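Record type: ASSEMBLY
Status: queued
Input:
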Amino acid sequence: MNNYYELNISINPEMEDIISDICFTNFDCEGVVLTEETYKDLVMTSTTKGNLRVFLNSLSKNPYEVLKTERELLKSRGFSDEELGSWEITVSEKENQDWSKKWKEKWTVTHVTDTISVVPSWIKYTPKEDEITIILDPGCAFGTGTHQTTQLCMKALQKYFKSGQTMADIGTGSGILAILAKKLGASEVYGCDNDETVIDVAKENAIKNGILINSAINDDVQPIVFELNTADKITKKYDFVCANILHNVLSEIMCDLKNIMKDDGFLSLSGILDEKKQIVLDSVERAGMKVAETLIQDQWVSYIVKK
Ligand SMILES: C[S@@+](CC[C@H](N)C(=O)[O-])C[C@H]1O[C@@H](n2cnc3c(N)ncnc32)[C@H](O)[C@@H]1O
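Status: finished
Output:
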């Protein structure tokens, strides 16, 4: 067996999914594991430092250069050094000792609410009678169910989405929100992303959950349609629209999101760090919409918006 490489990146744990996603997109990456350390900073607000261990099958690209470029991109989108963490990197070559299983050790069932859980595909889990489970392989695309921004959208779906309604998931990533909508009884679900690499992952995840996708259309059961697309190109209108994307992107596409909502529909906005919320609130107001409810989890804020 070949040896493997381990990248160690010092991060703010809040950024785990975003940085993991960068690693999966750019490197020959098998899995990631986060270790975190809680501390109090000088103004005595609780915050954390984390270390992301990234397991690579091979070292095809220079990690220092890739991460430098991606960090500059995030900073141009409004993230500060403090929000990102230092991203100090070490790279080491390790002897192979069944390491492909190692990164899986930390993953367990995530109970998002009393009746919604996310289960890694290798774990055998017996749900309660009224429990909805979503089977997912963590780490393949953003949306493993463990990140606060995803959980906030899942909670919004549970509270505001009704069986028989239609749903659009803009920035679908792993497809987790689209899959949940289908399991909540959606009559029609549409998931799109502007990153073509996640579309196949979303489709595979839907299949793992026993859900039909684009290619398996028959007359009786409506599948989920996953495709490479953005909100401005969509002409249909939906009862429930989810968008868990960075605050600056939400702000840019707010009018497009409004255009795909039915008049009495709901929009669930997530991906918003508390200190960036005003940017999103201003764009909601500019689009002539109103916040019906604010949901908060740790430093993350999410809005339920109505026309
Ligand atoms: C934070 S992830 C959310 C994934 C998943 N929906 C969840 O809630 O866990 C954001 C996703 O939005 C996609 N994205 C970013 N900008 C987009 C845009 N303008 N239109 C569509 N998708 C976009 C990214 O590629 C990424 O997959």
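Annotation: The pocket of S-adenosylmethionine is lined by residues 142-143, 150, 153, 169-173, 176-177, 192-195, 198, 230, 244-245, 249, 253, 271 (CB under 6 Å).
Annotation: The two ends are 57 Å apart (CA to CA).
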